[in-house]
């Protein structure tokens, strides 16, 4: 790799950028933003860096040359929490062709390939190549939401490239996300006398079953099938409520009381035809089969899907074939949500995710394969040259 890219990745991994990272100046991924800003100012002094404040101590960086943007690279600066069970150094350790550490694959190596694209544009004098380094992808999508508000009407590139880890494959689509936080209420009673109470958990499960019925048999030719995940459930005979969602309510512990309270988080990966309204309607229809009631149903996430046609990605496929080999696309069922979808929704332009190979993303001993980063850097330099 040129421009000492491997050292740059190691430097970024050494900077903690999860929700527990905090300095006097900022928190989360702020120190990564500082590192990138200082590097760009030193190595690419002709480029303009715009800081977009997301909240106190958190910023997005939009980097450009002052001309209309044609090719936009984007990547998130945050990462998930470190977790436990590491047998390698969470802050970075090289072993053979692998580089371990939190964020190594997701996605600090990707950030460096974006720097390589900027480097190539500077060396060749190519105009209209820009980068968006944004925050909070792993948590609440605050960075991308602010990017849409700040740059949605101002920019309209011809292609957006995001080096999210894709195991070296191309990804041109993403399913949407609907996340609901629901509270179902019933009535306590004696467990041996079911008619004396209303089981909130049974009501909740009827709602879940109705959502599953909605999803069964649904399929999109590009995006595959929708999926439901019941992420959290708190249920019991309510003793004391809590306004802190990390603590939750207090329940009785005896098995002879019918539960009158159930709160849960549901997440559905959506496809066209299965959206926010249909999911809520199905859940409520299930509850109506029972005597329990939905006290609240709050939507915490409602994001759409997208598909970029292959005919819009001919140059990307040509470069992939030249650098990697036969063109391969990632299975949509194996991918998470790409928040570049928010940009596609407003710009209606081609999007491609193309990142390095790696494993154990979000788990212990996360690593990136160094040769795949080298290949991706070569590909991005060619893309800059030929776009």
Structure characteristics:
four-stranded antiparallel β-sheet, seven-stranded mixed β-sheet, alpha+beta, elongated, single chain, Alpha-Beta Plaits, 387 residues, Aminopeptidase, 2 domains
Question: Can you put this structure into words, describing what you see?
Answer:
- The chain starts with a helix and ends with a helix.
- By secondary structure, the protein is α+β, with helices and mostly antiparallel strands.
- The protein has nine helices and 19 strands.
- Helices cover 30% and strands 25% of the residues.
- The strands form five sheets. A seven-stranded mixed beta sheet has the order 1-2-6-3-7-17-8, sandwiched between helices. Strands 4-5-19-18 form a four-stranded antiparallel beta sheet.
- Strand 4 and strand 5 (98-100) form a beta hairpin.
- Helix 3 runs parallel beside helix 9 (370-386).
- The model has no long low-confidence stretch (mean pLDDT 95).
- The chain folds into two domains: 5-174 and 305-386, Zn peptidases (Aminopeptidase); 176-303, Alpha-Beta Plaits (2-Layer Sandwich), CATH 3.30.70.360.
- It is elongated.
């Amino acid at each position: 790799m040129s421009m000492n890219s491997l050292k740059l990745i190691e430097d970024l991994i050494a900077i903690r950028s999860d929700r527990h990272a905090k300095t006097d100046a900022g928190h989360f991924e702020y120190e990564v933003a500082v590192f990138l800003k200082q590097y760009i100012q030193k190595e690419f002094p002709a480029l303009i860096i715009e800081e977009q404040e997301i909240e106190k101590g958190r910023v997005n960086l939009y980097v450009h040359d002052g001309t209309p943007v044609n090719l936009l690279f984007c990547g998130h600066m945050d990462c998930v929490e470190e977790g436990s069970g590491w047998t390698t150094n969470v802050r970075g350790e090289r072993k053979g062709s692998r580089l371990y550490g939190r964020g190594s694959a997701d996605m600090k190596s990707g950030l460096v390939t974006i720097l390589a694209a900027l480097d190539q544009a500077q060396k060749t004098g190519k105009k209209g190549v820009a980068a968006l380094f944004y925050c909070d992808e792993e948590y609440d999508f605050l960075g991308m939401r602010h990017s849409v508000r700040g740059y949605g009407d101002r920019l309209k590139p011809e292609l957006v490239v995001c080096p999210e880890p894709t195991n070296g494959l191309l990804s041109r689509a993403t399913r949407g996300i609907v996340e609901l936080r629901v509270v179902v209420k019933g009535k306590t009673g004696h467990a041996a006398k079911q008619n004396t109470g209303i089981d909130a958990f049974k009501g909740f499960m009827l709602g879940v079953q109705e959502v599953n019925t909605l999803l069964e048999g649904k399929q999109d030719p590009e995006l595959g099938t929708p999926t439901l995940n019941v992420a959290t459930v708190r249920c019991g005979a309510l003793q004391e409520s809590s306004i802190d969602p990390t603590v939750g309510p207090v329940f009785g512990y005896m098995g002879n009381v019918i539960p009158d309270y159930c709160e849960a988080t549901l997440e559905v990966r959506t496809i066209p035809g299965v959206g926010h309204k249909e999911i809520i309607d199905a859940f409520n229809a299930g509850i109506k089969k029972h005597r329990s009631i939905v006290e609240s149903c709050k939507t915490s996430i409602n994001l759409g899907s997208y598909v970029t046609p292959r005919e819009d990605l001919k140059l990307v496929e040509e470069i992939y074939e030249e650098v990697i080999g036969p063109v391969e696309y990632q299975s949509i069922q194996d991918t998470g949500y790409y928040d570049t979808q928010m940009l596609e929704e407003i710009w209606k332009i081609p999007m491609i995710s193309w990142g390095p190979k790696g494993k154990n993303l979000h788990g212990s001993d996360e690593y990136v394969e160094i040769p795949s980063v080298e290949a991706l850097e070569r590909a991005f330099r060619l893309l800059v040259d030929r776009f």
